[in-house]
Amino acid sequence: MHHPKVLFLDEPTLGLDPQSREHIWKYIENLAKEKNMTIIITTHYMDEADKLCDRLAIIDRGKIVVLGSPKQLKKELGGDIIRLKAQTLDLDALKKLPYVKEISPCDGEVCLTLENANIHLQEILKVVGKIDSVEIRSPTLDDVFLHYTGRAIREDTPEGGWVKVSLRLNPDRSLSVIVQDSGVGISEKDLPHIFERFYRSDPSRSQAGAGLGLSFARAVARAHGADITVESSPAGSAFSVTIPAAPA
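RESULT FIELD:
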């Protein structure tokens, strides 16, 4: 095999088992080191990028959204991550803590971003009260990727559009998870019917479906004592899942 100055590898470990991936990683590292070769890799595996790359670019919608070393990009997220799981969380009290830089939803739990999590953990637990679980970790490239590209699975969002997920603690202690977008919105004619079974007239959807998704989602929410509501305008829609407070 010849030894070019620049080697392009497209998803070099796609579909491989962990043992084979390790062998490929070592081979790539040896090529770069022993042959003084520049290797450009495209990959969807963030652990692969973290292990192999001195410099990486995250591309979203065909554009480079951030560029830097793995260490630098993880550091720029702003510190450690504390992941909390609890029946109820006093988000307003957490927001008042000066060292908490960001509060975001994480698969049904809440993630806090802050510096020196080990120093502040005890105070956070006092503020939060009873919890089911807590996890502390440093940021990963997965966190970096989600930070710059978003967590939503997107479908034909217009250029410059956005999807935002937020949490709101209501006066009655219920918790609302709000998913808001900047799409075309839902017409006044369709809005009262979107939770009906087989209703498919929402123009904001670019692909045909059975018209069961929202109906099923509301049925599941109500079966667990929650509810789903929606507000919409030509500037976008906001769906709210409201979960009642646990009985005292």
